[in-house]
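Re: the 126-residue chain
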Amino acid sequence: MNIEDFREYCLSKAGVTEELPFGDNTLVFKVGGKIFALTDINEFASINLKCDPVKAIELREQFEEVKPGYHMDKKHWNTISTKGSIPDLVLKDWIDQSYNLVYAKLTRAQKLNINIQDEPPIGLLS
């Protein structure tokens, strides 16, 4: 996966915004104002993704490319090398899981706002 594919995939999800809150090098993707993915925009050597704590440990044991989250809560975040042999479909699944974990913690109002902005109600389009 390259940086363009990563960015496009993250932005394809409902309610996602991209920001550079940590400086010009760190590209951050958020849903409902909460981070679910980030990477170094210049090197794209790795990505940080949120992960269920039990699954995070399993992935670290199974894949040498998966390490505890760099500069993140090591219990809930993994850093995944983009230079390894992990297939794009697996990376996309992990991005989905990260997004879903963060989305699930949003308030009902935040979720409704995301759905309203991204999916027009049926019957209002002529």
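The chain has one domain: 3-118.
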